[in-house]
Design brief:
This protein is an alpha+beta fold. The chain has a single domain, classed as Tetrahydropterin Synthase, Chain A (2-Layer Sandwich). It is 23% helix and 36% strand. The protein is built from two helices and four strands. A four-stranded antiparallel β-sheet has the order 1-2-3-4, covered by helices on one side. A hairpin with a 2-residue loop joins strand 3 and strand 4. The two termini are 16 Å apart.
């Protein structure tokens, strides 16, 4: 089994509903996203998935989040880093999953040193 990982980032605002504390107010983050793909086999030239392809597809997904109020994507759910990771997992999987490779894990860093992950 091979794992291929890339990372990208986006900037966005959000607030947490039904939260008691400063995060209930609109605030922003520079989010870091790490996407890991697992491949059982390599292609004819020895790649699981080209880093350039993986990063491009991840950026396609993140474009929807960048410089927005991401609460609009999560009504009525909270746009927590956990829910963001799950949404990115699904959207990226729809773009790249095939018989050889699948999205394995998405890590979302809300701040340096604080992350949530989603995987199945």
């Amino acid at each position: 089994m091979f794992e291929i990982t890339t990372e990208s980032s986006f900037s966005a605002a959000h607030f947490l509903r039904n939260y008691s504390g400063p995060c209930e107010n609109v605030h922003g983050h520079n989010w870091l996203v790490k996407a890991t793909v697992r491949c059982e086999k390599l292609d004819a030239i020895g790649l699981g998935i080209d880093f350039k392809v993986l990063k491009s597809k991840l950026n396609d997904v993140l474009r929807e989040f960048d410089h927005t109020d991401i609460n609009r994507l999560f009504d009525p759910q909270n746009p927590s880093s956990e829910n963001i990771a799950r949404m990115i997992y699904g959207k990226l999987g729809a773009l790249i999953n095939n018989e050889r490779c699948r999205v394995f894990r998405i890590d979302v860093f809300e701040t340096p040193g604080n992350s949530s992950a989603y995987f199945e």
